[in-house]
Specification:
heterodimer, A: 290 residues, mainly alpha, 2 domains, 13 helices, B: 333 residues, alpha+beta, Rossmann fold, OB fold (Dihydrolipoamide Acetyltransferase, E2P), 6-stranded mixed β-sheet, 5-stranded antiparallel β-sheet, transmembrane (chain A)
Chain lengths: 290, 333
């Protein structure tokens, strides 16, 4: 046990880093809040009067706002579904003893090392391009009309690209969880007459519950703020078909030069993210206690 | 019924043969204990019987029917693992029900069997708890319960008591013996603890490096160990083994005498200095040095006998309890 003295000393010594981190967070947050209450447009220089909640009203009543919320939820939900289900499937496969496991594992993990902008560009130009892309080529070989992914199904295409990036993360976490399963439990269930499917459903899947929770939590935090992939591939379009909340804030403040409304959007995004986080913690936080 | 026959069963991992061809018959209703030092292949042998490892050669028959190629679940055996291997996310009831559920049994039958097993094992109050909320002994009983409900031809135990503390181990030992008395089902039990082997077994199989050194009842092994290894392994404290001139007097390479067969008497033929004495109350064990026979001779004396370290005492071995071993380490009749 620490004495009163050593505790005081410890507090004193970590104080600088705590203060620095707090300032790092509070100053930008405070400025965003402050800007969100000003009429502050870079195209109309002059004084920036205080306008109360006007910016918020504009942002929320913007028809793009509802679309952005729906798109954000679809993006996060779709990617979570694909990565968790795919991650479990890959983890089960990679858990099998086979030749060349090491190489296969590194290859599975490699998409995670590609920068989001780069992978989005590669997907856009080399796979999904309706003229030069690989998918278009395959479609032509099969005698079908090439599909213009980013125009005809922009949101689904982005979900596909981002899922490809995050699948390795989910696989990695779930695979390590899978490997921590006590082999005697599997043997016991084998003695108990469980088929391969029953062993997966009754033993492995419950064992993975906690890891799945971790994957969902971490990914949600990152997926709420997807930006690079949208900017590179569709610019939020066509129309607002692939605009999410992050992209809408960007469009307000840096395309329309409206710092005030952009800040208001940022504050709304923070609030929404926290609501999602609270619900997530409520729903699956139980899993982490057990 | 639960008669298990091993016919020239052999197991190799790659080039290393862990179990050379081995024959063994386990009779119906017998309590057989595989005992030996760690790494002697006793657990591997049990896993071969269970079907968790594939044999590299030979045949396993259960009740006369070939079982070598049957999957574990089809052999009609139940196993209790060293780590208990309970399913942590299921309640005790669900744990015990699991094998029945896998067998697709009706609800009433499942409930009847689980309630019966819980009653037999004193688990009725814990059925709704999870394994994490149980003590070591209770978890052990749940693991046994999961084995009982299947009504198997034989139970396999893989060092089931090694995770329990000493007091609990004695209690569980008794419970397993009583369970065997009541169920009369064949039990195969693996342990490295010769006390467990001696107290529980109808038949002990002593293994070393995958070879069967001796098979027999606990008292057979105690009275007539077939070779030096068994002589040193069975009995606690271990038998005194004496080489050299004293052994030559008895026409043997090595003679063995158990601590309990040496008397401390005034005119004994052997003499030595007392080193450590271990007082157990009922008995006292003296470690006797400088006897000229072996480094240490262990002697059991009644609890009241008291000698201080450094005292010189005289010892008299009971000649009819002397074991003689030849050049090859085998017993000389």
């Amino acid at each position: 046990m620490a004495t009163q003295h050593s505790r005081a000393a410890a507090r004193f010594m970590i104080a600088p880093s705590v203060v620095l981190l707090l300032a790092w967070m509070l100053i930008p947050l405070g400025m965003t809040l402050y800007f969100s209450f000003l009429r502050y447009n870079l195209l109309m220089p002059g004084n920036n009067p205080f306008v109360g909640f006007e910016n918020y009203a504009y942002f929320v009543t913007d028809p793009a706002f509802q679309a952005a919320i729906v798109n954000t939820l679809l993006l996060v939900g779709g990617i979570l579904l694909i990565t968790v289900v795919g991650g479990i499937a890959l983890a089960v496969l990679l858990d099998q003893p086979m030749w060349g496991t090491g190489i296969v594992r590194i290859m599975v993990i490699s998409p995670f090392f590609v920068m989001p902008t780069v992978s989005a560009l590669v997907w856009k130009n080399m796979f999904m391009n309706p003229v030069n892309g690989l998918f278009a080529y395959i479609a032509e070989v099969l005698g079908m009309q090439p599909f213009d992914f980013l125009t005809q199904a922009p949101l689904a295409s982005i979900i596909g690209i981002v899922s490809w990036q995050w699948l390795p993360f989910a696989t990695l976490i779930l695979l390590t969880a899978m490997q921590s399963l006590d082999s005697e439990q599997l043997e016991a269930s084998e003695m108990d007459g469980a088929s391969a499917w029953s062993r997966f459903y009754y033993i492995k899947l419950p064992h993975l519950a906690r890891a799945i929770t971790v994957v969902v939590l971490i990914q949600t935090i990152f997926l709420l703020s997807i930006f690079a992939e949208i900017l590179v591939t569709t610019n939020g379009g066509p129309g607002t078909a692939s605009t999410n909340l992050t992209y809408l804030v960007y469009a307000e403040s840096l395309l329309r030069f409206d710092v005030g409304t952009g800040s208001a959007g940022g504050v709304i995004a923070i609030i929404l993210a926290n609501i999602v986080a609270i619900f997530l913690m409520r729903m699956i936080g139980k899993n982490l206690d057990a | 019924m639960g008669r298990i026959t091993l016919d020239k069963v052999r197991k190799a991992f790659g080039d290393t043969e862990v179990i050379p061809p081995l024959d063994l018959t386990i009779e119906d209703g017998e309590f057989v204990v595989f005992v030996g030092p760690s790494g002697c292949g006793k657990s591997t042998l049990l896993r071969l019987i269970a079907g968790l490892e594939d044999v590299s050669g030979g045949e396993i028959r259960i009740d006369g029917k070939p079982a070598t190629d049957l999957p574990p679940a089809k052999r009609g055996l139940a196993m209790v693992f060293q780590s208990y291997a309970l399913y942590p996310h299921m309640t005790v009831r669900k744990n015990i029900t699991f094998p029945l559920k896998m067998a697709g049994m009706s609800e009433e039958e499942k409930k009847r069997r689980v309630d019966h097993a819980a009653e037999v094992l004193n688990l009725t109050d814990y059925l709704d708890r999870r394994p994490g909320q149980l003590s070591g002994g209770q978890r052990q009983r749940v693991a046994i319960g999961r084995a009982i409900v299947r009504e198997p031809a034989a139970f396999l135990f893989d060092e089931p008591l090694s995770n329990l503390d000493a007091a609990l181990r004695v209690g569980m030992r008794l419970e397993i013996s009583e369970l065997h008395e009541r169920l009369k089902t064949t039990m195969v039990y693996v342990t490295h603890d010769q006390v467990e082997a001696m107290t529980m077994a109808d038949k002990i199989v002593v293994l070393r490096a995958g070879n069967i050194e001796q098979v027999g009842s606990p008292l057979d092994l105690y009275r007539t160990p077939r070779n030096l290894f068994v002589a040193g392994f069975i009995g606690s404290p271990t038998m005194n083994l004496i080489d050299g001139a004293e052994a030559a007097k008895h026409d043997a390479r090595t003679i063995g005498i158990r601590p309990e067969h040496i008397d401390v008497v005034g005119d004994g033929p052997w003499q030595g200095k007392v080193g450590v004495s271990e007082h157990l109350g009922s008995d006292t064990f003296f470690h006797v040095h400088e006897t000229g026979l072996a480094d240490i001779i262990t002697v059991r004396a009644p609890g009241e006998v008291n000698h201080r370290a450094g005292d010189t005492i005289r010892l008299s071995p009971q000649m009819d309890k002397l074991h003689r071993f030849g050049q090859d380490g085998l017993r000389i009749a």
